Fold this sequence. Notes:
Elements: H1 20-33, H2 36-43, E1 52-53, H3 65-83, E2 93-94, H4 99-109, H5 118-142, E3 153-154, H6 158-173, E4 177-187, E5 192-194, E6 199-217, E7 231-237, E8 248-251, E9 256-262, E10 265-270, H7 274-280, E11 287-294, H8 295-298, E12 302-304, E13 312-317, E14 330-332, H9 338-346, H10 380-390, E15 393-406, E16 414-423, H11 429-437, E17 440-442, H12 445-456, E18 460-461, E19 463-464, E20 475-477, E21 483-484, H13 487-500, H14 504-507, H15 510-513, E22 528-530, E23 534-535, H16 537-542, H17 544-547, E24 559-565, H18 572-584, E25 589-595, E26 598-599, H19 616-622, H20 625-634, E27 641-642, H21 645-667, H22 686-707, H23 711-733, H24 735-740, H25 746-766, H26 771-780, H27 806-831, E28 841-846, H28 849-856, H29 862-866, E29 870-874, E30 883-884, E31 892-897, E32 901-902, E33 909-910, H30 924-930
Parallel strand pairs: 1-24, 2-3, 7-10, 8-13, 17-25, 24-25, 26-27, 28-29
Antiparallel strand pairs: 4-5, 4-16, 6-7, 6-12, 6-15, 8-14, 9-10, 9-11, 12-13, 16-18, 19-23, 20-21, 20-22, 28-31, 30-31, 32-33
Helix pairs in contact: 1-26, 3-20, 6-13, 11-12, 11-18, 19-20, 20-21, 20-23, 21-23, 22-23, 22-25, 25-26
Amino acid sequence: MDYGKTLHLPKTDFPMRGNLPKREPDFLKFWQEHKIYEKRLQKRDGAPKFILHDGPPYANGKLHIGHALNKVLKDIILKYKTQQGYYTKYIPGWDTHGLPIEHAVIKDTGLNRHEMSALDLRAKCRDYALERVEEQKQDFIRFGVLGDWDHPYLTLHKQVEVAQIGVFGKMAKKGYIYKGLKTVYWCPHCETALAEAEIEYKDDKSFSIYVKFQAVDLNCHMPKGADPDKVFALIWTTTPWTIPANMAICANENFEYVWVKIGEEYLLMAKELVEATMKAGKAEDYEVLPEVMTGKQIEGLVFQHPFYADRKVPVLLGDHVTLDAGTGLVHTAPDHGQDDFDVCVKYASWGVKPIGTVGSNGCYTDKVPDYEGKFVFDMNVPIIKRLAEMGALFAKSTFRHQYPHCWRCKNPIIYRATEQWFSSVDGYRQKALEAIDQVQWIPGWGHDRIYNMIHDRGDWCISRQRVWGVPIPIFYCKDCGEHIINDETIAHLQTMFAKEGSDTWWMHDEKELLPEGFTCPHCGGTHFQKESDIMDVWFDSGCTHQGVLCNDPELDYPCEMYLEGSDQHRGWFNSSLLTSVAVNGCAPYKSVLTHGFTVDGEGRKMSKSVGNTVAPQEVIEQYGADVMRLWVSSADYQGDIRLSPKILKQLSDVYRKIRNTFRYLLGNLSDFNPETDAVAYADMTELDKWALMRLEQVYETVTEAYENYQFHVMYHAIHNFCTVDLSAMYLDVIKDRLYTEKADSQVRRSAQTAMYQILDTLVKIISPVLSFTAEEVWQNMPQIPGKEESVLLTDWPKAHPEYLNADLEARWNTLLSYRRDLTRILEGARQDKKIGHALDAAVAIYASGEDYDFLSQWKDQLATLLIVSEVSLLNEAAPAEAVSGEDHGDMKVVVAPSTHEKCERCWIHSETVGADAEHPTLCARCVSVLK
């Protein structure tokens, strides 16, 4: 007789190998064809809402691993919240306007934007953006992210643009919008102003030069006996190209200044910086004159610009002048520095002001004699040479530092004084700070970060000199020069935008863009010109709380959560907060969750040039989306998140262990019907009750982890449960009764009842992360009445506090500590070749006192728990060869081969083998099962 056929071995169609890259698309198809996302919403219709507003990625280029991290985190949260009973409509979004798109179109096509009509360029930008949206959408779907992918929001959608100009109009009405001349970040390559959030800092080499400005009028401060032609102010700068734009010299009124004599020349500088300055100029023979002047005393002294004889340069006072470096006298060019500009505004009555030295393309204008048309960054060396030839260069050197670069073209930027449109943050700063205090920031340090940014930020430059975007909806009266924006003009434009989108601004002339018969509210004039600038893309995305959240009654405003990378404290979180507070007096979000950035295995920033990038598409092709999703859950996202091929291999191993746990559970439930075969909790074995107790503890840990968005805690809890509690202990121990006992015996059904409960709970609590695998498990689980068609439609499992038992936990914690000692000793015996398989072993335990008293309670179960054939517990002295336990040193153990015959069916060595004539190779237990 083939006794192997009488065993209840695992049976399941659930494969051992996931083959995720090939199988996952089948489950995507299943979710789409069965409209699982739509059914998820239908099931929660009328339930409390949990709306997560999607921060729109730029519709350009391929998705990187940071996109995967972000979207998967959102998906995990929304799937969990759905299980918890919330209505979780999710509208994915894209940022489709602005410089990134326009720059990509020009780069890819080689077109010259100056030779194209605005509408032609906008059409190409629109087509490009829509193509990228479609490409990125397919990748996001492949990540396993559920959402309304057929109806995403794009910032180029008409209803979003209509809402955006509405926000602009309300802010203008409240006095929060103005046009002014200020120094702004300017990209000479992209020819546009940039916001703070559009700046990246990179290592760059710059010049450090000390320049002599000859004295013109020193009042009473001319050094005694000095030749006036040899008296100078010594300034310091790191931007030689701005010397032609110099209009003044700045000092600090609280510093002490002195004359330093070198040969026949006299140089004015801060007293505290003399030594460092002389060292920079390699001057060893010098004299510091005794006269000391305060900054206040030298205010108004006049010097000569080194290049231009008709330009006299006064000394001004500014708090920005420090003693950190230089000479204490700062070269001041109001065209090219915020501090320079601000101090010159203070001295406007002195005639010190920007003169427009550099054009939009980064080249000098006709205001700069000798250099007109020259690109500024090409002129550092020629200007230094000219200063040297004139004898005006005291010292020069180079140094490396972090210099601002354009986020899109990656080239260095300049500061440029231009007329721009600004939002006056001072008008609503305090309300914004109060709103921040009402928001839950996750992690908590996010509060202080954005609070300080809002507290300290200057006015928001919202105009851009491009065409691909939403126009600034302002008109100028040609008759009186005043700008015009009011409820009437905005309402009319909104009607036109709703029909034609923002293209309407370029499709029609001013007469058509304004209401019929419109006259200037300032002078009654009838001749108008429309603004040519567009809005900052951060204004676009920052208004989506109105164009998306307020445009759909199934969403919510303020919504429950914004979730993006930590750089968005100065980006989307910031712009969304400001626009929402400005028009409605509240934050657009109730909570904000931020994550760190992806770095390689050594903690380095990922870079194509370094070759350490990991693309999400490559991860999916090799391992599948679920392994990538497991990576997202495994890391503490509050800091930087590491990823490398080695880390992915480790996560693949973890995934395999979790998958094999599911497979084993499924395989041993093939003949189990939970409706008819389940055993009541009170009738279950104590080992099965322990397993359910551990399940409930894991359930509580995982639930709390999801609630607190601590997904790495969930990951470790489930991983340890599968590998330590289940695979290494519980499932190993119950294998004997699952395989060998009668199919319908109570002890076997007790184990299956526990396994089913574990499987049903585990598949649901892991489904927000391992969505594909959970679906595969779900489809292979026993069919019972009321079973949902998809695991993504299931509710969060109910708590079972009755499974928690402090006495049971304490007893089993102690028992398992003995088991760890005993299994270590068994493994040692196996390595010493004293035994082969563990079932070949006969174990003698020598114990006394508390050890003996405790173990004697489990005497009949020790062989089962250790998976050996026999265990004898002896309260006597141990032989010399006995091995001591590590945790229980007084316990001694001897492991020897069993002297009994091995049962052919269950492989346990037993003295009862051969007792039955009909089945001479079986033990008594197996004989009774077969009869």
